[in-house]
TrEMBL record:
Keywords: Membrane, Transmembrane, Transmembrane helix. The chain crosses the membrane at residues 6-26, 33-51. The keyword Transmembrane helix applies. It comes from the Bacteria. PANTHER family: ACCLIMATION OF PHOTOSYNTHESIS TO ENVIRONMENT, PTHR35551. This is DUF2854 domain-containing protein.
C-alpha cells in the first residue's frame, strides 16, 4: 500500500523522462534517448496528471491507544477493517469516501448534499472494539441519521451495531460497535 499519491509519482517520473527527451533532442542530438523520453515520458506525465485530477485523499485516522489496537486485532470484523483500510488510503475515480454506502442507506440525496467523511477514530466502548466515522453533514439532518441507525448497523454487516451521535450541529458520528453475538473473524 502506497503512503503517497500514485499520481504524484507518475507525474514526477513522466516529467523527468520528458525533460530528458527534450534535452536529448535539442542539446545532444541523441535519437534513441529522445524517443525513449517522448514515448515513455509524455504518457506517464499525462497519466499522472489524470490520476491527480481523479484523486480522493485519505481520511485522517486518529492515533489509537495500544489497548485499542489489541482490541482491533482480537475483535474487529472484516467490514470494520475494510472500511478503515479503504478510507485511509488514496483512492481514484470516486466522488467521496463511502459514497455508494451513503447512497444505498438513503443518506445522500444528491452529490452536493452528500455527507463527507472527515475523520476516523478507534475506541474501546465497554470492552468492544468501535470504529467511529465522523461526517460533516450540513445538508442531512440528524433526525434522518437517527431514523437510519438500525439500518446502518445491518448494512455494515453481522456482528456490528451502529450508534449515531451529533457532536455539533453540522457533524454526525457513526460508531460501528462489535457485538458479542458473532465471532470476531466475521
Amino acid at each position: 500500500m502506497l503512503g503517497f499519491p500514485l499520481g504524484n509519482l507518475l507525474t514526477v517520473i513522466g516529467t523527468a523522462l520528458t525533460l530528458v527527451g527534450f534535452y536529448a533532442y535539442f542539446v545532444i542530438d541523441n535519437a534513441t534517448l529522445n524517443l525513449a523520453g517522448f514515448f515513455y515520458g509524455i504518457p506517464l506525465l499525462l497519466g499522472g496528471l489524470a490520476l491527480k485530477s481523479a484523486e480522493l485523499k485519505p481520511v485522517p485516522l486518529a492515533r489509537a491507544a495500544a489497548e485499542v489496537i489489541q482490541l482491533r486485532k482480537a475483535q474487529a470484523t472484516k467490514t470494520q477493517n475494510q472500511v478503515r483500510q479503504d478510507v485511509t488510503r488514496f483512492r481514484y475515480g470516486q466522488e467521496a469516501h463511502l459514497d455508494v454506502a451513503l447512497e444505498k442507506l438513503g443518506l445522500s440525496p444528491s452529490d452536493d448534499e452528500r455527507p463527507e467523511l472527515v475523520a476516523l477514530r478507534e475506541e474501546n466502548r465497554e470492552g468492544a472494539y468501535t470504529l467511529v466515522l465522523d461526517f460533516a453533514s450540513p445538508h442531512v439532518d440528524f433526525e434522518t441519521w437517527k431514523e437510519k441507525q438500525e439500518r446502518i448497523g445491518r448494512f455494515f454487516g453481522p456482528g456490528l451495531r451502529a450508534e449515531v451521535t451529533q457532536p455539533t450541529s453540522d457533524r454526525v458520528e457513526v460508531a460501528l460497535i462489535v457485538t458479542a453475538e458473532v465471532p470476531a473473524d466475521v
